Amino acid sequence: MVEHIKAKFISSANVLRQTNHRKSILLGLIVWVAFAFATILTTVISKLMWVVSAVRQMSWRKKILLGLGALGIFGFTMIEVTGQPGFCNSCHVMNPYYASWKASSHRGVNCTECHFEPGFVGYVKGKSVAPAHTINYVLGRIPTKPNATVKDASCLRSHCHNSEDLVPGNVDFGPVKFPHDKHVGEVVDGMKISCGTCHNRIEGDEHFKVNRGVCFTCHFLRRNGSENNLVKTGCQGCHEIPETMESESMTIDHGEYVLYDASCEKACHKREFQKLSDVKEGVCLNCHDFGKSHHPDCTELHEIHTNCEKVECFECHGHISHGQEESVSASTRMMCEKCHSETHNIQAGIYSASRDPQEKADRRVVSPMFLTHVECTGCHIEQSQPFSGNAYSFGKVARAVPRACDVCHEPGTGDKYIPYWQGEIKKLYDRVNTKLVTLEDFAKSGVGDERAQKLESDMIEARAILESVKADGSWGIHNVKYTEAMLLKAERIIMDAKLGSISDPGTDVGPK
After folding, report:
1. C-alpha closest to that of 186 among 155, 227, 219, 148
2. Would you say the pTM of this structure is higher than 0.90?
């Protein structure tokens, strides 16, 4: 037991001795560093005192020259430092733009070479604006998304993209053949096209990526109230005729269409050719304190926002797309209503009690279902084939069935009332139709010219009401009270015409 305690004591003493040794080394290192720093500081202070003493002994002329020299060295140093891309990246809002530049093909080009105009004057002008950016940064007035305009002179300087690059000829831009000489310098609705008009997007590794939306805005946008685009455009002006294409198990030979002088933009691709300009009223409020109506002149607005300031097209016009995003069958794009228009007007008119004008608005017969906003699909719930046979197009229509009434009413309501209403309306229709046929037969027997004209007008009006009821097809179910009122009106017209004929001497209109 004693030996164990002795061993523990000796072990603890060794650990304490090692710990004290480490502390001694660390303390010595700190003392050495402090001594070295004090020595250097003393040396620097003594040198500064020597310099100050030497300067005091100088004449005022030498002092001024020395100050100017020091200021020049400091200014030159600051100009060089602030002209480096790394200094631009010191603002956090510039981080993504710096990263894009560093990864792009322009990474060997200094920021000032593009963003300052060429020449000494342009450089001085750019540097004179720089302090304002610094002040705005210190005051927190830097926008979250800064913008900058690169002048054409910067792009077209001799050692960059000189003007010889813009000789007539097409540049392959994906499927588009792009001619620079037909774009740069042109004015479109107040917008002067420059390099920055198209090469204006910072995206990923692209520092001057071409924004296709600019192309689409000019070539496919049209103003409200105008039938023409801002720029006269044809598909073959940008695209070459493609070769044979395979699409959805079919072969498309564009050459065949062109052979028959088919117009791309007026035939197959007409949906992709023209977009309506729809600048929202609130867009202006993103930057200004007034709306679009404050400045309605589009040409002047384009001059201000593209020539004086750098505002992207999509900031006002939104995203303008071009080209089919998906292939759609022609059958799904058929505009059936252009030929088969207003096919349900009679049913809608009877349901809303607006088919035949009623004599007094306060006595208008309106269906209770219409008042409670029951839509057509509320009753037409059963999908069925209206025709049978091989000639049928395999389509279906929604048919109204009595059990649809059970959704809102007691079960069996439709089976109870629908046959009764239809039976009563058919009886009334047959009665009125019989009287009208009798009157039409009488009119054929010959009456006076003046009376014949009035009689013909009455018969046409009555026949129109009967045809509306028959064409409706529901026999009162769409609006039973209104259908009854229409038939009773037709009957009154017939009776009034009959009485008018009886009042004429020598006329006989048959059975009373």
Report:
1. 219
2. no
